[in-house]
Structure to design on (139 residues):
């Protein structure tokens, strides 16, 4: 089987704030923006990686989701425990400095984890956890 990750999804509750975070702060390019108001599906992705996308979507809009489930999703988003993404960079300190000087909420400064990964963490405007790992070329 030849499978690869094409798109992953994170919820948003303010499409303009999420767009500003992923486009203006993280530097992702906008690949699509459909809908209107809070009901927008925005596709962004890292420049130079056209085969990898992130869909920012309104949460809990599926007709099969109950009101209790919608309430739970809203509560989890408010706590920052609903969605998360793991990004990677070769220069964690520079990425952290750029994000720290923005409006992004710092969750964790660059730290060498006990399991050997050096990373940091932020929250996007919807409360999603954005972890950034430092990766080095094996050269």
């Amino acid at each position: 089987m030849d499978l690869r990750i094409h798109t992953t999804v994170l919820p948003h509750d303010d499409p303009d704030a999420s767009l500003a975070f992923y486009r203006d702060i993280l530097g992702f390019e906008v690949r699509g923006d459909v809908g209107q108001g809070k009901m927008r599906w925005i596709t962004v992705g890292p420049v130079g990686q056209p085969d990898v996308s992130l869909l920012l979507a309104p949460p809990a809009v599926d007709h099969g989701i109950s009101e209790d489930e919608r309430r739970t999703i809203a509560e989890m988003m408010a706590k920052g425990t609903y969605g998360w993404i793991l990004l990677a960079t070769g220069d964690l300190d520079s990425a952290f400095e750029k994000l720290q000087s923005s409006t992004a909420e710092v969750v964790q400064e660059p730290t060498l984890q006990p399991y050997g990964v050096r990373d940091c963490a932020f929250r996007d405007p919807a409360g999603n956890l954005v972890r950034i790992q430092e990766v080095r070329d094996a050269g």
